[in-house]
């Protein structure tokens, strides 16, 4: 059921906003500069409709049309957004104006959502795929299916699994995606006499085995580092086919796969001892950037946005090189990774949806070409196009680490690797995400057994789903 504005405000739903040069990881308790700056146009984008004078017969039928694109003041002045709206003008003739909306404080309903539900005319917004679900629930997004059908535009062949699909309809076009990876410290491998791992058959079993070979607690060296985000609790289950919701749309945390996933994640520190236990992690105040600042971790599993700090030697000085691999996957399963696509959508308040669709297509198809290290969400690029883009736009900034085109291709551009949502998308998801963190960590720290944690998560998740109806 679509929510009204009053209930959204009462529930305090917070739209997951995109941040980070290569989009962010999925925790609700992150508050650091690198993540909040991941993506300047993360503040939702907006656009108001312009007047269409009709098809002039030119190659730019929307020449001179003005659209409003909602974003924050900071994002509106950012270089990438400035280049993006110029690109749209050059390609389509459409003039995009920024509809500036204040940032939302923690616990507040997204101000763009409030604006739309108040009827403000906006043509384009930006959000992550999970974040758009809240807008969809509120009934403020335009189904793009008819617009695409009119133009014989095949969205699925262009963007594949990255499309924000809710109830079998498409509600946005993805421009780029954060894709989870494994970074590794080559010096720690060299010091331990361990060969660099290969992307081929890079499973969790091999990851754990490798991390054990690297761990030397006498020297303060751990083979692995993971953070305290919600998705670490369930990523192993996702990769084995788990769904957070059952067929009847109730919570599915009592599925044995979720229990297996909790045991796997917290067992890395508590049992395998290849990384700090969650208790030690929290007590020490370990930050997301510990892999780069301490040089004490052999491997780091996180979103690809973390590579944005690799060539920032002034802020993160190091004399050791980094290797790049895809996200490991459970043995016997198909290769997969977690992703967070950044998407452009058209609100229902737009009065020129045809022009907005032309602009959104242009943005989604071409933003990665602007030189900001984006990993395109397009799945239709040829091998030559991918190689050229990686060589000219991705690999060059990482010359110190000697990362190759093949390194980037296997980590970020493997078309056979299944893309799974880093964030839970569905009713009650904001509350569920926090519950998973709190109860999971309570179990990981020894405050309750795993069955009690799962029971609490299941019950609280179902309550969140019910309150979200």
UniProtKB/TrEMBL annotation:
Keywords: Signal, Sugar transport, Transport. Residues 1-19 form the signal peptide. It comes from the Bacteria. InterPro entries: Bact_solute-bd_prot1. Residues 33-61 are annotated as: Disordered. Residues 33-47 have a biased composition (Polar residues). PANTHER family: ARABINOSE-BINDING PROTEIN-RELATED (PTHR43649), DIACETYLCHITOBIOSE BINDING PROTEIN DASA (PTHR43649:SF12). This is Multiple sugar transport system substrate-binding protein. It comes from Anaerocolumna xylanovorans DSM 12503.
């Amino acid at each position: 059921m679509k929510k009204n504005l009053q209930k959204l405000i009462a529930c305090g739903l917070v739209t997951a906003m995109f941040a980070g040069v290569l989009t962010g990881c999925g925790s609700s308790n992150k508050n650091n500069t690198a993540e909040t700056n991941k993506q300047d146009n993360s503040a939702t984008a907006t656009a108001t409709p312009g007047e269409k004078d009709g098809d002039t017969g030119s190659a730019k039928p929307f020449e001179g049309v003005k659209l409003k694109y909602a974003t924050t003041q900071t994002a509106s002045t950012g270089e990438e957004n400035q280049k993006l709206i110029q690109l749209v003008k050059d390609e389509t003739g459409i003039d995009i104006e920024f509809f500036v909306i204040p940032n939302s404080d923690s616990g507040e309903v997204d101000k763009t959502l409030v604006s739309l539900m108040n009827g403000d005319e906006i043509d384009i917004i930006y959000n992550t795929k999970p974040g758009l679900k809240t807008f969809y629930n509120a009934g403020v997004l335009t189904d793009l299916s008819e617009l695409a059908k009119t133009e014989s535009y095949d969205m699925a062949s262009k963007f594949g699994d990255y499309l924000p699909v809710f109830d079998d309809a498409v509600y946005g076009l993805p421009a780029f995606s954060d894709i989870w990876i494994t970074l590794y410290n080559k010096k720690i491998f060299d010091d331990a006499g361990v060969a660099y791992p290969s992307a081929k058959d890079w499973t969790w079993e091999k990851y754990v085995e490798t991390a054990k070979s690297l761990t030397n607690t006498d020297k303060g060296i751990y083979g692995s580092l993971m953070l305290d985000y919600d998705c670490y609790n369930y990523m192993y289950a996702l990769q084995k086919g788990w769904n957070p919701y059952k067929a009847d749309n109730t919570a599915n945390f009592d599925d044995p796969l979720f229990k297996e996933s909790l045991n796997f994640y917290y067992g890395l520190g508590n049992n395998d001892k290849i990384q700090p236990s969650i208790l030690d992690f929290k007590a020490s105040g370990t930050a997301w950037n510990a892999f780069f600042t301490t040089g004490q971790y052999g491997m780091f599993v996180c979103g690809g946005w973390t590579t944005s700090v690799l060539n920032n030697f002034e802020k993160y000085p190091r004399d050791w090189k980094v290797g790049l691999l895809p996200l490991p996957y459970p043995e016997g399963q198909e290769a997969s990774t977690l992703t967070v696509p950044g998407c452009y959508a058209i609100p229902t308040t737009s009065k020129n949806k045809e022009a907005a669709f032309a602009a959104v297509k242009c943005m989604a198809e071409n933003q990665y070409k602007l030189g900001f290290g984006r990993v395109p969400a397009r799945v239709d690029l040829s091998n030559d196009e991918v190689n050229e883009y990686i060589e000219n736009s991705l690999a060059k900034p990482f010359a110190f680490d000697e990362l190759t085109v093949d390194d980037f291709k296997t980590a970020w551009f493997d078309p056979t690797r299944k893309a799974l949502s880093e964030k839970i998308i569905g009713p009650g998801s904001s509350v569920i995400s926090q519950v998973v963190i709190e109860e999971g960590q309570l179990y990981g720290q020894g405050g309750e057994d795993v069955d009690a944690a799962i029971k609490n998560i299941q019950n609280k998740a179902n309550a969140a789903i019910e309150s979200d109806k």
